[in-house]
Amino acid sequence: MDTLQHLLTGLAAAASLQNLSFALIGCILGTLIGVLPGLGPAAGTAILIPLTFTLDPIGALIMLSAIYYGAMYGGTITSVLINVPGEAASVVTCFDGYQMAKQGRGGTALGIAAIGSFVGGIAATLALIVVAPPLARVALSFGPPEFFALMLVGLALITGLSGQSLLPALVMAVLGLLVALVGIDPVRGAPRFTFGVPSLYDGVGFIPVVMGLFGVAEILLTIEKPYRQVIKTNLSSLLPSRPEWRRALGAIGRGTGIGFFLGLIPGVGSIIPTFVAYVFEKRISKTPEQFGQGAIEGVAAPETANNAYANAAMIPLLTLGIPSSPTIAVLMGAFIINGLTPGPFLFKERPDLVWAVIASFMIGNVLLLVLNLPFVGLWARLLHLPYQYVCVGTLLFCVIGAYSLQQSVFDVGVMIACGIIGYGLRKVDLPIAPLVLGLILGPFIEKSLRTSLEMSGGDFSIFFTRPLCLGLLVIAAAVLAASMLRLPPPQLRESNP
Amino acid sequence: MRRGRQIACVCLLGIFLAALITSLDYSLTDALGPGPGFFPFWLSLIGAVLTAGILVQEAREPDPGPLEWPQGPAALQAAAVPVALAAAAALIEPLGYRPTMLIFIAGLLPVLGARSPVGIMLTALAGSFGVFHVFYYWLKVPLPLGTLGL
Fold first, then answer.
1. Residues A58/A106, Cβ–Cβ less than 8 Å
2. Minimal CA–CA distance to B37: which of B46, B47, B48, B26?
3. Are A398 and A47 in contact (CB under 8 A)?
4. Which of B38, B74, B85 is the closest to A399 by Cβ?
5. Is the pLDDT at A179 greater than 90, yes or no?
6. What gap in Å lies between CA A209 and CA B8, rounded to an integer?
7. Same domain, B14 and B36
8. Total domains present in chain A
9. Is B30 within a domain?
10. Euclidean distance between CA atoms A327 and B77, whole angstroms
11. Burial of residue A315, with CB atoms counted within 10 A of its CB: 0-12 exposed, 13-18 middle, 19 or more buried
12. Cβ partners under 8 Å of residue A146, min gap 6
């Protein structure tokens, strides 16, 4: 009953004209980010954070969440029309979406992707409403040792699934944790790794680092890639035919389930649910030979799974304070900038905010459907924008974003340095995602570790004598061991970053 | 690729070792338990050991192929981006956002291959004066005005 009451209050807040406008602007900007080459959801969400500086926290988070799932859908358009995924999760959509476009069925591919995304998003949000409150209540009973172990599980999952090899991912996670230590020690107040530079006393800003690693580095990589031709296809007929509906409906249902359940596991990443949904559809299909040749299920299943995942991935963030992916980490950064720490206490202390944001997911999914079905032709035209203008526009927003957070030129320098570092890391195939997640989780991990050890007087047995904590540590160790043995098939692992 | 990865790992190893040595300046433990140096010390140590592990692994595995770097105009364009960004960072406070970004966009677009003077001019004006107006006046985001108030 409480949940229903909170949800209705949240819906009322999210449906206010002001917040509705923020959601609409967020959906438009997010789709734009997804459509434009060289900008993934993580960088896109990060560079648009300055737009929300003067908004109240609810409005800011509604807008940033809308940017996030807008970007997740926007990537589909490029997958279908130019065979280039706008973001990693849309890789699978290229297989059949591009083939459909070549056969003159591009409109149908984009239409079923929009419908599937809507169904997956709404279903996952409804499940989030049911699952999140009890999970948050359980997490409220966690002490510092359990939180430390929980964050280790999150980090283990993220590193274990983020690259081709465990060692590089672990090194990058450790580097992220180490960079997070720069600044004033939160427990004792002593400066660490500041080298007498006053700008480092507040630590290395998360936003400039993300903008550099994802935004600037991505621009540098885009400059190298040859420009792709936009395919001419029929975009006037968006709705599938009756036989196509019959084939797509089951795929949408199964994609929703796969996306939602995989979204609950931190570190799975957005590409795995889409691959699993695609492979599952192909395996149960009576005509598997049509996959890769323009099968509508090959678009419906991964696109639905992608959006269901995007909404379900908010559950670990909102209930446990663990970001599942770099984009969710950026959203976590946005919470922190607004003076809020995602996790179970947020449900207790700011239910108005949490429920307004959750309710906005439903509104946002409706807005995305409304935006994407009638305006698909308009989005497609944006693909003709010369990349030079897109690159310069992105860099401009990176400079504004890095500077305006603290009015600091130093932060712009951090962004440029991280851009060059990110470019180099991508070139030598070292994963960036664990670094970013280590950076955002670093302060929380250190604080919970040190508080735990203070509780026990420096005795490490505190982590092994509390059953829940021990269980979580065993899970973390098992995840790392499984990654070392390469249990998941390599093709299902998240691509760099 | 292997050589590039080895160089990256040596750099990382240097960072971890430097952090390890620096962390010894902070106390590892104090009266309340772990001190400010505790977490950095162990992290740096773990990072250094893991990086050494990658170096060993790299030496034992076959080279996946040469690293592909941009050639010709693409190399110039890729180099121009950080240089232009650094110049913008240096000028943004003394000169102000609007003139800096006008120069940044008008200078970088032709290097990246844009050829239409009208397009370049309009983009530069929109990105400098237009964006400033939106952020500074509408969104109340503080952007630098420079010593001349521009």
1. no
2. B26
3. yes
4. B85
5. yes
6. 18
7. yes
8. 1
9. yes
10. 28
11. buried
12. A466, A468, A469, A472
Q: Rounded to an integer, what distance in angstroms lies between the CA atom of residue A337 and that of residue A418?
A: 20
- In B, minimum Cα distance to A186 occurs at B36
Do B125 and B85 reside in the same domain of the chain?
A: yes
Domain boundary at B33, B60, B87, which? B60
- DSSP single-letter state for residue A48: T
- Do residues A416 and A205 lie in contact, with contact meaning Cβ atoms separated by under 8 Å? no
Q: How confident is the model at residue A250 (pLDDT cuts 50, 70, 90)?
A: very high
Q: Which domain holds residue A434?
A: 2-492
Q: How many CA atoms lie within 13 A of A1 on its CB side?
A: 0
Number of separate domains in chain B: 2
Q: Closest Cα partner for A180 from A156, A153, A151, A209?
A: A209
* C-alpha B8: how far from chain center: 16
The C-alpha of B117 sits at a distance from chain A's nearest C-alpha, in angstroms, of: 13
Answer whether A71's CB lies under 8 Å from A83's CB: no
**Cα distance from A331 to chain B (closest Cα, Å)?**
20
Q: Which of A493, A439, A494 lies closest to A211 in space, CA to CA?
A: A439
10 Å Cβ neighbour count for A56? 14
The residue among A47 and B87 whose pLDDT is bigger is B87
**Do A35 and A193 touch, CB atoms closer than 8 A?**
no
Q: Which residues contact A270 (CB under 8 A, 6 or more apart)?
A: A72, A87, A88, A89, A306, A309, A310, A313, A325, A494
**Rounded CA gap, A175 and A477, in Å?**
20
Residues B6 and B46 in one domain: yes
Tokens of B41: 């010390």
Peptide bond into A326 cis (omega under 30): no
Cα separation, B127 vs B112, in Å, equals 16
Which residues of B are less than 8 Å from A165 in CB distance? 57
Of A485, A363, A322, A492, nearest to A26 by C-alpha is: A363
Q: Binning pLDDT at 50, 70 and 90, where does residue A493 land?
A: very low
Residue B149 included in any domain: no
Give domain status of residue A497, yes or no. Answer: no
A405 contact residues in B (CB cutoff 8 A): none
Domain boundaries, position B102: 73-138
Residues B93 and B41 in one domain: no
Cβ–Cβ gap B85/A416 under 8 Å: yes
Distance CA B147, CA B128 (A): 17
E-strand stretches of chain B: 29-30, 33-34
pTM for the whole structure: 0.85
